[in-house]
Structures
1.
Amino acid sequence: MSTDKQKTYLFDNPRNVRRVVHGLVGACVILAGLDLVLHRHIYHPWESMFAFYAVYGFVACVLLVLLAKEMRKVLIRKEDYYDATPPSGDDLPPPGESG
Amino acid sequence: MIESLPAFPLLLGAVLVAVTRGPLRALVMLAAPLLGAWGVYQLEPGTVVEFQMMGLQLTPVRVDALSILFGYLFHLAAFIGVVYSLHIRDKMQDVAALAYAGSAVGAVFAGDLLTLFVFWELLAVTSVFLVLARRSKHSLATGMRYLVMQVGSGVLLLAGAIWYASAGNGLSFDFIGLDAPGGWLIFIAFGIKAGFPLLHGWLTDAYPEATPTGTVFLSAFTTKVAIYALARGFPGTDLLVLIGTLMTCFPIFFAVIENDLRRVLAYSMINQLGFMVVGIGIGTQLALNGAVAHAFTDVIFKGLLMMSMGAVLHVTGEMRGSELGGLYKKMPKTAILCMVGAASISAFPLFSGFVSKSMVVAAAIQEGHTVVWLALLFASAGVFHHAGIKIPFFAFFAHDSRYVDTAHEPPVNMLVAMTLGALLCVGIGSFPGLLYGLLPYDTGYWPFDVTHVLAQLQLLAFSALAFTWLKLAGIYPPELKSVHLDVDWLYRRVVPQAIRSALARLAPIDRALRGQGKALVASSLSVLARHHGSYGVLARSWPTGSMVIWVAVMLGLSLVLYYA
């Protein structure tokens, strides 16, 4: 497998990455556009709004990530958090030394 | 024998596999789930095996549409799992895996609460070995925490069952409801294994710590037995709608920031369980069908995702998203199979998640649960975001990791098992009639209409667009070498630390009390020494003469008294 080093793979070429992104944007435009053409059977009034599911999906994901980023600030700990001995900040002696 | 205990082939297989090796072991491993599935096929709905023991009416086997569905599912999952782990040479895992699968089968055919309890606890003690089999310090500690929670759930179930039966309801396992005596205990016992919020810590703690093959088994059985039990005992319980909605939403936030990709899948599992719990809570025929159908498809697509991540772990020894990437270059087959699983969990039309999840969502909106419906849509978009895109993206694409040079496709048996899973995902997704025929109710539901397909495609495409935009704009949180606190923090850090500091605070009081005690002992010793010591009054020796004098005095005294 000595040729492996030289071999370029699908996404080593930035053009292919761009193609994927453009393809996705194209798919989104078409799917949103289909809302104007196709009739959906509706249970809830909000569903009749143009591209309701599209907007909802986009906003939901952005909110999800932004909130998760805020959450991370509070919850993140070092990788060895549970392995490390508890912080020695509390100046109390370990139980064995009492008495 | 099969009729009296559908779990028998798997349990017998567990015994046989302990004493066989080489090709014979592989044969036993493969034959056990196949024989078991054939046994389920032979079962007639309505069959009941009953006997009396110590005055109790026990029903070890009760066959109906619901138990048959789960019976097939568990044998299928066991078979795929066995194929996936054929390359392993570890008796402990072989025995544990088959016994674990057998316990799950036993539990869904149990017709009374006592039999259910026995298999419920067997699930716990067999599955823990799949965690312990990693044989590391971590897995030992995790395994013990897992065992405590699982066995605890069984104890609650037993307590609830005794209370329920002693109130004159009998032991038979049918609709229980929260109002029944002991109902809450049984509900919480089921809830622990179903991963209810705040009771879910064991799941995200233990599943990522198990062996690459062990997690595949773990993800199939325990939680789905709990879903079965909830569907049997608590359908239509309003509280479940709320609990399930929470379960669909809160884990996706954790999944976005979590670094261990199998832990991401564990969070995503709680999210999927949430859909099932909502379905059970709504309790209409469509919702219940959706819940159990989703349990069926989830076992297969979550198994497929766990298998693909297990393959990465097997090949690279690494599971942290921050350290992985670019593996599509060397593991293209695994990457494609993983993406089939990702498409299925994200409920793309023609993949299995779509045909099951849409039933629950449709039931929510039809029953007028608007907020629940919006939450489920949010969770559907979120699951695509964290499981559908994040898992394949960070493992196989993103940046080139240091493993790209050395990585290779996993063993053939792993690829075969993943291919089986992927075929089932596409097969059920494209021909849902196969699955719908097994469901307990005939609702005439059909998922492929313009409304559902277009709405789902829009939701997914724009979620992907959001991911792409956030990633390109640099807003998406990077994978970091880290852990994130969850509810297990309480019992892994807060409580032990509180006990430690409480002990430390009590130490001075303890010391003072012990000092006083010692002083008391010392002073009584000195009193004793004064009286009984070498020179004490009571230790003096008396001359014999004084004894004779006293005897003479007493005799004289008695003489005087006699004459007086």
2.
Amino acid sequence: MSGYDLVDIEVTHEAADDFLDSLSEDGIDGGHLQSIQAVRLQAGQPDSELRSLKELDENSVKLLEHQVDAAYRALFEMDGKALLADEVGLGKTIEVGMILKEMHFRETDESVLILTPAQLAKQWQAELREKFGLDFICNYDDEFEDFDAHDYIIASIDTAKSERHRQTVLDRDWDVLVLDEAHYVKNEETDRYDLIDRLSYNYAFFLTATPIQNELTDLYNVVSLLRPGLFGTRDVFHQYFVNSNQETLVNRDELQDRLNKVMIRNRREDTDIDFTDRTVDTRTFDPTPKERELYQAVSDYVKGAYSQDQGQKLVLMLLQKEVVSSPVALKKTIEKRLYEQSELTHADELESILDLIEDIDTVTKQERLLDIVEEARDNVEMGRVIVFTQFRATQRQVLDRLASEGYTVHAFHGGHSSSEKEQIVENFEEQGGILVSTDAMSEGRNLQFCNLLVNMDLPWNPMRVEQRIGRVHRIGQKRDVFIFNMALKDTVEEYVLDRLYHKIDLFQQSVGELSSILSRLEESGTSFEDQIFDRLVNADSEVDLENDFDAMAVDLQEQRELADKLEEFNSGVFEGFDLGESND
Amino acid sequence: MSSKALTWGKAMTDAALAVTQSAVKEFTERYLESLGGTIEKKGDKWVVTVPDNEDTGLPAGQMSLLTGDDTNEEATGEPLHPESEFFQRILREASKRRPTGKLTIESDQAEVEIPQWLEGSDVEVRETQLTPYYDRAAVVVLFQVSIETVSEYQQESLRAIAIDGHSEQRLPELEETFLRITSITTDTTNTASQSAFSEADARSLLDTAQNQLMENVRTEIDEVHREASRAADTEVEEYRQLQQQRIQELEEERSKLFSKIDKLSEAINSSNQDDRVEALKQRKKLKAEYEEVDSELSDLHEQQDKGYPQKQKEIRKRHALDVRVTPLTVTRVEYERGEMDIELAEEGVIRTVTVGYGSGIGPTENVRCSLCDREFTAENPIQTIKDSLRCRRCTSSNP
């Protein structure tokens, strides 16, 4: 590559006088061989193995060859500064987990900062804890004080760059910086870029499946943060690698050579991951007239209350979710509201909702669940089924019902201690039957021995849904996976399922793919859940509502297509990127 | 961003040995025994006795070494693993103990190397027979090569260079043999700490080895050189932009000052005495400021026109490469030279070829095609021996 002036080279030959003097000395046999060996050992790589690997619990995390390779290369061949750019779904988080575990083992991680998009922070925390036994505090935890108060922090990048924290983050010398979804810092004119540029750290690992978002400059920016100077100046980079019409790449070999020093990209086709099929069966049921009446009453209440006081959004959202989960779940929240809040408006409305709940004798979803588990008892190994619900009250009722029908049942929720949770999973594996779980299960536990999952109710956040499915449909699952979604007709669940999830083929997306779709969507600042709720309460009519959800589906679809295109574009640029080989 | 030097990820090189736990244990055991020490192994715990010996700075007496993976809190003793203080200490000591010495390669110790021109061929090698005629000596030097620059990680590597004592030619095959037979699993008795080189010979061979080494690492240096130059260039460019920005700021400031002065001049002409005095004072102050800005600007412009030679020099100097070459051990290697008889067979025809051979060096002679007199090589291997020894080119052009 031309365009720069060469710097000087100074060569020093150290004298050998010291030991040439010893030429005539007598010595002991073998002494010289030992000197040679000692010199060779000194030059050797004491670190060239991942020594923490054997400390990992095989039940918590199954490592794949490409992941171990990536961790090794990032640590030992790239001097602890690497861009991990595997295609989606290949486990970049696992790679970073291994790297951090290894650094922890070697005690080179006095302070670690992991920056992620907001919606992924908690997931990172759970994965690192469950799979690698690494405890991080998250900026969303109650115990979180500030960036100078803890040594192992996972934070949303936007929190870190906020006025309040920025200086604290920058004042510190971090040992390790991990930056998830690194393509969000591609633009050198943003606050995010500026933050990373100014951060002080010794080791850094950036993650992205799509290093290039729009143009090759994105790659220049991200790589230059990691290894300034690798690509020279922006202008020279442009002249050398990009054809003047901006469309095509030139000197690709040289680009790849250079990238090889800092970037690791595994492609799905190069790994031996073999995912089994997943079949999704969405069953919508007609609610009983009483259930329909209850749903309508709650929806009207939520809508009315929200239009008067938007501050209650969270609890109203909760009611709207509970009514489709089970009447008991709803009952608890309403009672709490009635009896614990003295200055409550609409108390009469709530009272009448309670009456409606009391009136319900048949809970349709629960009855229909019996059909599914019955089917499973005959067709699935040890009749193992996992039933997910968001609510403890629903969970309890489902457990009672199933037990009364003579099924072996297991309960799993966030209230159990870590060892209890392990025991529950073990019992479920050994005894079979039905595990009824809240979303507490979504964090890091693997249940590949089961291949049938029922969503009693559906989280509005698609990531949550995928996390549930991910417990069973993951590397190591040998059978096809069956997912049953249960929804009542003409309810929010049916809208979400039908208009949103199915339109983007949600149930066929991996967490990685989803996160790239959602992150794009949530760039605007509103969360997916909020968008659903807003549409629900603001629609003037049924037709309006349908149109609104359709519009949201169109947005999603667009984001999905964009994400797909981006993937395609990146795989085009990096095609033939020879990353398995190192230069030695 | 920080640019602290990293020492963690030195690239593995040809001559370096992997520091596995088993290598650590093996080396430690042998070293302590060579000092006259004893080791009593009790599972993961070694009870070691170090004699009072002038060869070592290790404390004489008994001590415990913990070699296990599990750090059992109750066990007491020195940990022994790749990074443990004790192991690092004996490495330092052992490396300095006998940096010069002698090593002999016997014919039966070296692997028999079949000439490359036989490797890709259909002709079968039935037997090889080595006949040593005389001993030769070479020198093998282990060099530490360090390449350092501010923008790149320090690269350190260990290289072996073998030079024939007689011809002063480099012997790459001998380098490989040397590395193989001095690996950690070797406990050869064919080494002696006494070298038969005179100091003058050794010095001259060392110089030759050094020159060969520099040839050998040229590509690596070139690569780092390019990278460093690129990094320097980026920095120069950044500086240029920064100055450009400063120039713009100053130009704006100058024009602001200019219009202020202009306004004041108007005021001076049109106001009463008191105001005028005040305005004059003000104008004087502003004019001084203007001069200052203007002079800084013309300095900057001048520098810009010249291309900031001083700054460029400074930056490029800081990015300059520092290559350091240190010989760490010098070994006189004695090996045998002689002949190798290779018995070849093809469809019932048997012929014997004799080539010059050195133990640890491999074939030292070329053999030629009996038809065209071209040398046999890996690219032009032997094709048939039926009538005579013929190369692939001959047989493909004259079937």
